[in-house]
Amino acid sequence: MGIQKERTLLEDLVKKAGGCAVIDGGFATQLEKHGATINDPLWSALCLIKDPDLIKRVHLEYLEAGADILVTSSYQATLPGFLSRGLSAEEGELLLKRSVTLAVEARNKFWDAVERNPGHRYNRALVAASIGSYGAYLADGSEYSGCYGPDVNLEKLKDFHRRRLQVLVKAGPDLLAFETIPNKLEAQACVELLEEENINIPSWICFSSVDGENAPSGESFQQCLEAINKSDRVKAVGINCAPPHFIESLICKFKELTEKLIAVYPNSGEVWDGRAKRWLPSTCFDDDKFELFATRWHNLGASLIGGCCRTTPSTIQAISKVLKNPEQS
């Protein structure tokens, strides 16, 4: 019953948004613009410890820009990661809960304000708890290779994700967002974990891609989607943090492989060197290009569109403008 209720909530949001809901954009990018230093294995999750008010500020900036879905700052927030920083398990769990609470509080504050204006064009946003891949925790770039080594099996991946999933769900998000999944094994682990834990809020599972054709592991998306397509708990699938010029063909591919909602939130097109921990110079999409291509992506079948690394509130504003007010674009 819970799944059915939340599924309707997600579908209603897409409908209210004109057939395509807008996901927010790059979180770490915006934190850094405000002066945060996050060159750290915890990445943006470091601000959960050092500057939670800044996290809420960034959420509010994305809401103002027109985001219909806020993704929490928990992508690289893991219990092993917090333990490695000398925090206790209890402190780590409190930080995971904080990531959801900050997003919910920002959403509620923003909605309370805009509801007083009868002419507003905003939707009441949903909060998606971010669950980064195992490779994101390793912070060695393996979320873009899918190579976890021979010692990582299905049970190890489920054990890695299990407690974080439990804590995040208990914190009360509307959705779960499994992000930058690089291989079939981890996708299967996520699906089995949702079933084993009887999770009754809807999830999406998004993959990365480095060649525009397959998952980073080299496995086909047909292979990766086998388990996902059998799950009623996963409501959307798609691509995040891949170059935007891959997105058109990948939407077409996913349309052939699944009947689930399709989510796409690419990065700016710049390339991340996971070992050197820096962005490499490369051709990238500016906000005007995102505005142009968002319409194409929606027309091809995407129902959830946003941005990932190196995109900003102005990017999301451009996407929201063209999707919700096409006559003004």
UniProtKB/TrEMBL annotation:
Q: Does the keyword Transferase apply?
A: yes
InterPro entries (alphabetical): BHMT-like, HCY_dom, HCY_dom_sf, Hcy_S-methyltransferase
Q: Which GO terms describe its biological process?
A: methionine biosynthetic process; methylation; S-methylmethionine cycle
Which molecular function terms from Gene Ontology are attached? Answer: S-adenosylmethionine-homocysteine S-methyltransferase activity; zinc ion binding
UniProt: Zn(2+) binding residues: C241, C308, C309
User: What remark does the entry make about the cofactor?
Assistant: Binds 1 zinc ion per subunit.
Q: Which cofactor does it need?
A: Zn(2+)
**What keywords appear on the UniProt entry?**
Metal-binding, Methyltransferase, Transferase, Zinc
Per UniProt, residues of the Hcy-binding domain are: 9-323
> NCBIfam families from the entry?
PRK09485.1
**PANTHER family per UniProt:** HOMOCYSTEINE S-METHYLTRANSFERASE 1, ZGC:172121
The name of this protein is HOMOCYSTEINE S-METHYLTRANSFERASE 1
Q: Which organism is it from?
A: Salix purpurea (Purple osier willow)
